[in-house]
Amino acid sequence: MEKEEPTVYTPDNEPYLGRETVLAFDNAIIACLNANKHIAPYTHKIVKSDLQWVACQIIPQGISIALSIRELVRQGYLFGASVLTRSLIERATIMLYLYKNPEKVEVWKRGWKYNERPKLAEMLNSIGKDKFPNIGRMLTPVYNSLTHGDPESALWNLVQTRDGGVGYSVSKILNNPSLCDKICFEGSTWLLVLTSMAITIFPKATD
Q: What Pfam families is this protein classified in (predicted)?
């Protein structure tokens, strides 16, 4: 008889438990929450600059998204976790972009409107510059595909069926460790970017 999988996984039996990338993501989350424990109360005690106001709005969203991604990985919902990764990347990139281009904070204050704000690829290229030329063009197509649901996005929920064929998963993906690794590696990377931005923008909070 086939082993019946639990409906809900817990930290002691999750399907990808023991993978190094999962541990790295967990460590990034711990580091981030430890920093936030000091920074969040501090932000209520100071007169904030415009950039600090942006950080207060974006960074908590990014942390929440990262925690959501981690829980989706725990439950085996890798396709949903992949889709959310785009939102995490965007928030981390906005923080980096505005930190390096403080004059663009005015665009944020006007509502970050579609016809004014730079595209994700443009922000990444601006940040990468000569060290990582065209980094935006390399990173964004996959995540744009996942977000907009074009045919290429179907590759990310393709699974092997019990009869040896293939199909498109509507639920958990429990046998794709390489996809798990990709999600956790990128999740921990961009969460640490947000953490470093928080520490940089509020340096006195972590003294």
A: DUF5677 (PF18928)
